[in-house]
Amino acid sequence: MTKAIRSPGEAQQGYREIRGFASFDDPETLSYVDSDGNPKFELIRQTDEFRTLRRRLTTFVFPMTALFLASYLTFVLLSAYAKELVSTKVIGVINLGILLGLGQFVTSIIITLGYARYAKRRLDPQRTLLAEKIGVEE
Amino acid sequence: MPTTGNPVLNLSVFAVFVLITLYVVYRVSSRNVTASDYYAAGSSFTGAQNGVALSGDFLSAASFLGISGGIAAHGYDGFLYSVGWVVAWLVGLLLIAEGLRNTGRFTVGDVLAFRMKQRPVRAAAANATLVISFFYMIAQMAGAGGLIALLLNVTSKWGQAVLIALVGMVMVLYVLVGGMKGTTWVQIIKAVLLLLCVTLMSIFLLGKFGFSLSAIMQQATEMNTLGEAVLDPGAKYGFSAMSKLDFVSLALSLVLGIASLPHVLMRFYTVPNAAEARRSVVWATWTMVIFYLCTLVIGFGAMALVGSDKIAAAPGGENSAAPLLAFEIGGAVLLGIVSAVAFATILAVVAGLTLAASASFAHDVYANVIKRGDVEPRREIRVARLTAVVVGILSIVGGIAANGQNVAFLVSLALALAASANLSTILYTIFWRRFNTTGTLWSIYGGLGSCLVLIIFSPVMSGAKTSIFPDVDFAWFPLGNPGLVSIPFSFLCGFLATIFSKREPELDAKAAEMEVRAISGIGVRT
Lengths: 138, 526
What we know:
The complex is a heterodimer of chains A (138) and B (526). Chain A has 138 residues and is mainly alpha-helical. Helix content of chain A is 67%, strand content 4%.
């Protein structure tokens, strides 16, 4: 690792946080910002904080995508290939198909709000944590 | 003729709308100087504002008149079609909005070329944007013709052509004067008006039937020749194996294509950061849910109060369901308002499309491919404005030529194209580190190309009575919508081309930057 010139202020803060206590060996390596104040993306990518963020994001969005696609396609396929079933009347003349369709609206809202909440509680704080460690503004 | 109410009233409500919005556009955009102002409204909109504008992009004439009409004519099948428009926002929310906002500035090309070789990828992205926007635009302009026939009682082709040209010119004016900021405000004003309109109509209808959807549907079945069968699937999409598969293909294009349309993607740049981009999709989802719930009520309400036969016989056919219902419950004034809003909708959507197309040409092709990034922002904007005029003229010509074509159909083709060319590429470039330039080019051109080829050889073009060329038959692809084949094909193309081509170690640094920026937002502002 080349010696990095720490930029004053923000970058040092991140540095102190990592080291925690005084140490004499190799003190200058862990700066995540180069001398011009640009983030060192390759280093940031390998931090635990970033990996946690990435993991939290992907473990939410990919299963959720699979879930809503499956639910939507089920509705579409039932409507196309199980006419008898979706034509079953449930409330008055409202049949199962209409209810399943309205159910898609409901699941869309639930997933949307669920993601907004998850992002606020699990993703955004982690982003702040990462930004503090690196010493740049988000 | 009672079905069109009073054309003079319709036209004056519309004229008032145009004047007010033009004034707003003029007021908000006096400082329209930097590229960021013109393309992305200086990223100054809030999530809520942009969310309403986003939904405004979809509350187009095709979906307002088309879907309420589809429900009024085909019951269940019309509703089935509307569901996809809501669910599709989840793709935008979960997979696209934040990563896109964090890595791009003005166009789709910004994101796709971020960590790839600039010129070929930008050119490919611009090609895709232009093709998709052109299809979508033709659909909107063709819809304008039918709408004019219905609302202003102009039946001669020449009269309609003149009005299409007028609509096109007002739209270009919005874009030239207002840029993204003006266009966004027009979308917001229009979306709010439209939402108010449909909500009030729905509440009125529900009140009339004792707040029972079942009662509305019950009466609707009595006014439809199909009787209760209209509440079951099949009235529109049919029962043959091919027509069912065609519907599944359409549904797939719908759910994956909406959040991949260039003019929608561009909207994510009008907000200051990823969190606001997320918020805007949340807003858009809410407004879309409310809107399509209302459409369900309005569609069945029109069937119940106006009757399917009368709708089918009216000028404009199915599309006239909502205006006819407005006339039935609110007389000429309500019809005038609904008509003006429907018109405004076409204006606003086409303005957004024009902006997306002109931005893509000026920013990706002119500034980055031809001038290799060395161009003054002022000059780039001048090129963008010039392109907007050219695109406007093309869309007027295309709209006049396509006048009378099936609008919903053209829209579904645009969605299939968007899902095929853009979605796979955006997802790979954000989430798959190994993805490279060759993979990008293959997934854009593979998706776009296969989609176009399948459209040309589908029953849409030839071989059926409803085809564009009914007298010849060169169709060998059985489905009207190619999405079922072309979307997976573009994913496969991108994957295989990447696996079988060399890594690009010289671009590793950019890949790391993109990954960090897309996911954490770090580095976006520096």
